[in-house]
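Query structure, 268 tokens:
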């Protein structure tokens, strides 16, 4: 029986930049990955291992040196509406209300105004901001602004949603609440998600699978399935099974950090 085409397929993907000494610096090396429709994938790894570069390549924001990226079997060569991106900073327009910020992407797509307003209102309600449509970004908390950022991305109805440390700037309590709320939204929309984080417990709590990136050059060191039942409560983080899995992933990252420090010492 033939397997269904994966939502996202990455084949032999590499990325290099020209170095100051005239050579090349390889950031990502020979990455292969398949992601089925609706899967929530978290990416963790040491700083500088190419996580952000990887998702920007999938979004079409960064060029490919070699290899191939396909969404639904079609090669990615530039940004497209089937892929949405949520950055670490909320990047909202301060002169636009919540409603108008969420409308922005739909306006750029040239969708009918009435349909866009309806869709934006639906997304504002979905992220828990009903009643805040006429507020401006400076009137909102950090968590609320990031909800607007998420609503704007979801309003464009992308097939794949990429999120680059979207909760990094939030305090610990708000961050945990946003993790729980994101899962509620994901259960409703069932988007395919690639989520970058430095917080291992965040990755384990959110994901169906966690990709551990090795460093220098970036590669997939481990692909770990997360089998905790859904829906998940925040209490899961305090269970022995959760802590054990978090420690396992941390040990994999620690190996890369130690190796990187040793390599730096040898080159000094």
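Result returned for the query:
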């Amino acid at each position: 029986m033939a397997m269904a085409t994966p939502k996202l397929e990455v084949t032999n993907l590499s990325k290099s930049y020209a170095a100051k000494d005239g050579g090349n610096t390889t950031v990502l090396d020979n990455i292969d990955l398949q992601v089925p429709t609706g899967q929530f994938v978290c990416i963790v790894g040491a700083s500088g291992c190419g996580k952000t570069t990887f998702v920007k390549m999938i979004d079409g924001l960064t060029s490919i040196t070699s290899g191939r990226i396909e969404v639904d079997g079609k090669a990615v060569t530039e940004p497209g509406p089937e892929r949405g991106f949520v950055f670490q900073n909320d990047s909202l327009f301060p002169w636009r209300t919540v409603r108008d910020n969420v409308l922005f992407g739909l306006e750029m797509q040239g969708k009918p105004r009435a349909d866009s307003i309806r869709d934006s209102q639906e997304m504002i309600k979905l992220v828990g901001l009903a009643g805040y449509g006429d507020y401006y970004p400076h009137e909102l908390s950090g968590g609320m602004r990031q909800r607007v950022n998420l609503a704007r991305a979801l309003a464009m109805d992308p097939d794949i949603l990429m999120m680059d440390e979207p909760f990094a700037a939030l305090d610990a309590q708000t961050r945990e609440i946003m993790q729980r709320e994101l899962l509620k939204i994901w259960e409703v929309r069932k988007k395919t998600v690639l989520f970058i984080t430095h917080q291992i417990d965040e990755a384990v709590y959110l994901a169906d699978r966690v990709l551990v990136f090795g460093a220098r050059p970036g590669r997939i060191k481990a692909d770990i399935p997360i089998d905790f039942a859904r829906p998940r409560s925040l209490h899961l983080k305090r269970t022995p099974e959760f802590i054990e899995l978090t420690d396992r992933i941390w040990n994999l990252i620690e190996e890369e950090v130690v190796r990187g420090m040793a390599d730096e010492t040898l080159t000094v």
